[in-house]
Amino acid sequence: MRTSCLAIASFLAIFFIPLSWATSYEDFINCLEDNSHPSYPTSSIIYTRDNPSYSSVLQKYIRNLRFNETTTPKPLLIITALHASHIQASIVCAKQHRLQMKIRSGGHDYQGISYWSENPFFVLDLFKLSAINVSIETESAWVQTGATVGEVYYRIAEKSKTHGFPAGVEPTSGVGGHFSGGGYGNMMRKYGLSVDNIIDAEVIDVNGRILDREAMGEDLFWAINGGGASSFVVLLSYKIKLVQVPAKVTVFNVTRTLEQNATNLVYRWQHVADKLHDEIFIRLILKVINDSSSGQKTIRAEFFTLFLGDSNQLLSLMDHSFPELGLTKSNCKEMSWLESVVYYTSSPIGTPVNALLRRTPLVLKHFKRKSDYLKKPIPKKGLESIFKKMLELEAPVLEVPMLTFNPYGGKMARISPLAKPFPHRKGNICKIQYATDWNEDGVEVAKHYVELTRKLYDYMSPYVSKSPRESFWNYRGLDLGINHNGDDSYTQGAAYGIKYFKATNFNRLVMI
Predict the structure, then answer these.
(1) I need a surface site. Which of 8, 244, 270, 331 has the fewest CB within 10 A?
(2) Interior angle at CA 202, CA 198 and CA 208, nearest 5
(3) Strand pairing report for 366-374 and 333-335
(4) Are strands 430-438 and 163-164 parallel, antiparallel or unpaired?
(5) Which of 119-123, 159-163, 434-438, 482-486 is predicted least confidently?
(6) In sequence order, what are the beta bridge partners of 48?
(7) How are beta strands 333-335 and 249-257 bridged, if at all?
(8) Helices (H) and strands (E) in the chain, counts
(9) Going by DSSP bridges, is the β-strand pair 121-125/100-104 parallel, antiparallel, or unpaired?
């Protein structure tokens, strides 16, 4: 979901300003044609601004409407690659004509920086490179980076009901950005991140060479597994290691308001969520709602859960470790792992699993996201203060920053923070996501909602990680810092790069 040339400190990003784009346009198009494979002409894959399909192609993979305003800078052209030679040609011609190249797989990058820039640019769109080849015999699959996470899940389940892959719960996310930035989901306590289960890759480097893991070397392979691949290469495909899932899994979503003891349950969740059996993943979601009985605003806590086993096993484990939640058999729903993926999209029970093949989200919104890491449980007084702040921020607008707590522990705590660029391992209770959504267009409206998110983020400062205040790369925000690709690139990149990768991993990425 999130490839961009503004990654880390943009060390190897193709980032040039054209000397005279108006006079070099035809030369650029000719360059693309000359450097593509003769059997794959470029005439059908180039969309310029005067092409009737330009707007629809651009907007098809815009997932954050905040970056679909009339004021949003637009690409000079879009290249919808069908063949590796189209990517090679794009790299060669971008360098030759000093034009910035943006790489897009699924468009879910939260800042939209795979399809906008303040500098003249074009988009290399990979959505047509979406082949998935699953081998149950070797328990692996080759997945092109234009495929979506939902397509990966579906194609695996076509071959086996007892295999899956640990990745995200948003099925329309593109593999390229999602995997290369880490890739996490509700099986991470059992199997780790997506990048912990990637065994090979095919990439095209800045010189147009196609490289696999052996040819690129272990340093570069390490970097593209959590470090944001488009700082280094254009990804063609990943080879993933499939994981075992039971024929039946169990899900539940238990909700409690402040009036229903939510504060005590949230407090207790912090003490157990990262210590539960590896097969249990209990996501905690906090949001402001209107209480139907009192008519007053309150906080609702949702305990949204996947268990890799049957309901009887789950009830036994929960009775032992988290009896305060009061889970009952009636709360639990057993289903296949693939059905649980659909369930986690908040779709109604019984929604066909082929919904995972849908490439466009059902609802598009304007939104802002930020992230934090929780190292120590927040005291009850702190929780009460946070809830009060959320209620204050909610009025008088329709949406408020929602907090989602994704538990760590399990295998996440047993993998070295140096194993991949993603360093957030042992010592974290959970990752926190701040989410604010709105429906109105306009730059000023966006500023208002973004500021709401920042206010809650600032308010959380006493409770979250410090020195650095850590952040998740795939939730990146430009408000943490940007790089201008000048003499101060390292210093500018370190200001935010250390938050995403910590110092040791950041400096290794710099050297690579």
Answers:
(1) 244
(2) 150
(3) unpaired
(4) unpaired
(5) 482-486
(6) 77
(7) antiparallel
(8) 14, 18
(9) parallel
Residues in contact with 339: Cβ distance below 8 Å, sequence separation at least 6, in sequence order: 353
List the structure tokens of 247.
């024929």
Render pLDDT for 407-448 as a digit per residue (tens, 0 to 9): 999 999 999 999 999 999 999 999 999 999 999 999 999 999
Cβ 312 vs Cβ 253: under 8 Å: no
Q: Give the CA distances from residue 160 to residues 136, 153, 172, 354, in Å, rounded to whole numbers and listed in that order.
A: 7, 10, 22, 15
Q: Is residue 118 over pLDDT 60?
A: yes
Tokens representing 478 are: 């430009």
Radius of gyration of the chain (CA): 23
Beta strand 198-204 with 210-211 is antiparallel
Task: Please write the tens of the pLDDT for every residue from 25-66.
Answer: 889 999 999 999 999 999 899 999 999 999 999 999 999 999
450 Cβ contact partners less than 8 Å away, ≥ 6 residues apart: 368, 436, 479
| Model-wide pTM > 0.85 | yes
What is the residue-wise DSSP string for 259-276? GGTHHHHHHHHHHHTTTS
Q: Among candidates 179, 92, 85, which has minimal Cα distance to 129?
A: 85
Is the dihedral angle over the CA atoms 460, 463, 469, 470 positive or is it negative?
A: negative
Residue tagged 């052996």 (tokens): 214
Give the tokens for residue 240. 């993933």
Q: What's the rounded Cα separation, in Å, for the pair 326 and 299?
A: 19
Q: What residue has token string 């009025």?
A: 395
Angstrom distance (rounded) from CA 16 to CA 18: 6
Q: How many residues does the chain have?
A: 512
Residue ranges with strand state E in 228-325? 234-241, 243-244, 249-257, 280-290, 297-307
